[in-house]
């Protein structure tokens, strides 16, 4: 980090900040700061809208929204067969543009296919997964998928360009417009359509801004678009559809599995307490962990697979700083979780605080692992990442299976879950570092 960016701080503090944020990871943390600012403002807007929305919509409406959001989160990443994740990797913009167009073509074909299936067999297909309440809104599912996948493509192009500001701006735009749409349609008594349309806006808001921002680059690179180059790009990055698609599916399952297992093992109140604990812990991970992951991926992809020593040096710097900054909040949560939750949410949520204090054990390891997992993208390790995600699912089955067989208390179950996931994230981080070539 340059001295100019720290000149507003006193001398001693400036030296400390230069030590913490400087060196090989300085660009990563600059990018993270920009992304985190946008994400933070977006989340504040979203949180501020909740009290209004809960007075306009009923629990049943939010139930439909939860199912709708879950479906989008599972299906949308699969539309491009994950070729979209390779956009930051090519050295030449022309090849990256061919990957972008390949992803766009796959997205349109997959969305059209899903739309036809939902139009003809929507009720039957959704009923298989107990989602029949979404049948009247099948067309919104298609729009949501198209919006979400399009936004992902454009933000990954922005990541390639290391244009973090435009991503941050669109995050704020998504949250603001989504909240306005949900509130406005709620006042018109359009339920649950208002929530669903607002979620589509949240998935794709900012697409127009991204297109305007990068439209000139797309026009300049259009001359490089060739079917032969698209096939070459598809073959070069074939590991993404072969291994990243099933890996994404396993990741979606593992993210939803803990709550589903708790619902199967314990009563609704315990499940709700656990759900709030997961949501509270997920906020800092989404705000900082995932924004840092985007910044790390952009900087590491810019270095490329031909400069592994620099990628390794940057990864080590990021890991040390993440561990340092996440350790104190984890310790505070470990010892004061119930009290903090009681103050923030009310006395009825003390158990959620107790659960969160246990989950804090693996918070540091998950926080550190999130950005370095992108190392596998850079060095063609999609198969290795698939194995790690499969391992995580099997560990989850082991944790909750052991709880069922031994009739453990919720606290004991969560302790097993937290310790097992801590070991998984730690070993995954070590393995990612060892996967970087030696030269």
Automatic annotation (TrEMBL):
This protein's record includes keyword ATP-binding: no
Name of the protein this chain belongs to: Oligosaccharide flippase family protein
tRNA processing as UniProt keyword: no
Membrane topology: Multi-pass membrane protein
Swiss-Prot/TrEMBL keywords: Cell membrane, Membrane, Transmembrane, Transmembrane helix
Pfam families named in the record: Polysacc_synt_3 (PF13440)
Subcellular localization(s) per the UniProt record: Cell membrane
InterPro entries cross-referenced by the UniProt entry: Poly_Biosynth_Transport
Entry's transmembrane regions: 28-50, 62-85, 97-122, 137-159, 171-190, 196-218, 239-266, 272-289, 322-346, 352-379, 386-406, 412-433
């Amino acid at each position: 980090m340059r001295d100019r960016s720290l000149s507003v701080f006193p001398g001693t503090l400036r030296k400390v900040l230069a030590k913490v944020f400087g060196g090989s990871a300085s660009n990563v943390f600059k990018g993270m700061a920009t992304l985190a600012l946008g994400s933070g403002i977006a989340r504040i807007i979203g949180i501020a809208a909740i009290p209004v929305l809960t007075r306009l919509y009923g629990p049943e409406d939010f139930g439909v929204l939860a199912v709708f959001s879950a479906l989008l989160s599972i299906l949308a990443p699969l539309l491009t067969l994950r070729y979209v994740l390779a956009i930051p990797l090519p050295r030449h913009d022309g090849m990256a543009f061919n990957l972008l167009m390949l992803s766009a073509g796959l997205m349109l074909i997959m969305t059209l296919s899903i739309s036809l299936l939902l139009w003809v067999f929507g009720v039957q297909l959704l009923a298989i997964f107990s989602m029949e309440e979404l049948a009247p809104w099948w067309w919104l599912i298609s729009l949501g998928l198209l919006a979400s996948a399009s936004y992902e493509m454009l933000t990954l192009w922005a990541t390639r360009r290391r244009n973090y500001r435009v991503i941050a701006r669109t995050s704020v735009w998504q949250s603001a417009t989504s909240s306005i749409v949900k509130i406005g349609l709620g006042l018109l008594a359009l339920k649950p359509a208002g929530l669903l349309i607002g979620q589509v806006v949240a998935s794709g808001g900012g697409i127009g801004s991204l297109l305007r921002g990068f439209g000139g680059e797309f026009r300049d690179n259009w001359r490089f678009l060739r079917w032969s180059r698209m096939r070459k790009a598809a073959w070069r990055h074939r590991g993404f559809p072969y291994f990243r698609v099933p890996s994404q599916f396993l990741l979606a399952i593992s993210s939803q599995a803990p709550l589903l297992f708790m619902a199967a093992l314990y009563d609704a109140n315990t499940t709700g307490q656990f759900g709030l604990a997961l949501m509270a812990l997920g906020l800092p991970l989404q705000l900082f962990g995932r924004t840092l992951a985007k910044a790390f991926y952009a900087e590491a992809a810019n270095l490329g697979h031909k400069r592994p020593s620099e990628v390794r040096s940057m990864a080590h710097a990021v890991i040390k700083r993440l561990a340092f900054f996440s350790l104190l909040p984890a310790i505070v949560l470990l010892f004061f979780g119930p009290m903090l939750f009681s103050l923030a949410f009310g006395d009825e949520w003390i158990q959620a605080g107790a659960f969160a204090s246990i989950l804090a054990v693996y918070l540091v390891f998950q926080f550190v692992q999130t950005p370095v997992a992108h190392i596998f993208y850079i060095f063609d390790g999609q198969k290795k990442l698939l194995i790690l995600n499969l391992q995580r699912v099997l560990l989850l089955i082991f944790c909750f299976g052991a709880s069922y067989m031994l009739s453990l208390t919720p606290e004991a179950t969560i302790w097993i879950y937290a310790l097992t996931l801590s070991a998984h994230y730690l070993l995954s981080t070590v393995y990612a570092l060892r996967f970087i070539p030696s030269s």
